[in-house]
Design goal:
heterodimer, A: Immunoglobulin-like, six-stranded mixed sheet, three-stranded antiparallel sheet, about 25% helix, B: mainly beta, Immunoglobulin-like
Amino acid sequence: MDMTTSAQSRRDFLATATAAVIAGTIAPSSLLAAPEQVATELKKLFGDTKLIEGKIKLDLPSIAENGLVVPLNFEVESPMTEKDYVKAVHFFAEGNPNPNVANYFFTPMSPKASAQLRIRLAQTQNIVAVAEMSNGEIYTAKKEVKVTIGGCGG
Amino acid sequence: MTTQPTPRVRMPATAKAGEVVEVKTLISHEMESGQRKDKDGKLIPRKIIKQFTATFNGKEIMKADWHGAISANPYQSFFVRVPESGTFVFSWTDDDGSVYKAEQKVTVG
């Protein structure tokens, strides 16, 4: 009889303790951008135009030790002539406070729709690249980067 | 902390007509993202370079709009074609309106 009560109270204690632990782990609501925010940005830019996967070579490390300086290289397949060239390439981060990263605008004077830059990533997330072609076609590519130390200070 | 932004450009000074060359650019700039807080918990206002442009003999080759996610001391490399002898001008526009420029003459021959 005595044993049962003690077991009962211990179960109660464990239940309360577990509840407390769970409550503690629920992080304060995050201000970081979500994939939906990137989708909203894309909708703003392109409306209902279909995004086709491909044509973009998006080169980012799979694992970035330092989120403050993450190298990004890209190249979009295109002959880059007056008739057929890449007008713009946009980059978005799904897990940064602001989903916008950079927008590159090319002209037929550019021999390649390509550049290398360094970006900051707050946490592990997907980077989305979207290329606008002169004929109105829109291509997209996505790459996940695992970030060990986030790069947004604060 | 503010440093006077100094642009640096590396590219060949001579090329064959129509040759495609790589341009490497770097500018010292803190690129304050507007996300960080100071000791009193107040947001430090954003101050970044918001645009980069490259022109050849006055014609635009490419430009880039940058946001808070661009690393401090932004490095960038890209490609240009050298159709004839002339001058490439690279400019960086700051949030405060300042424009930093670098010029490079390239001789075809």
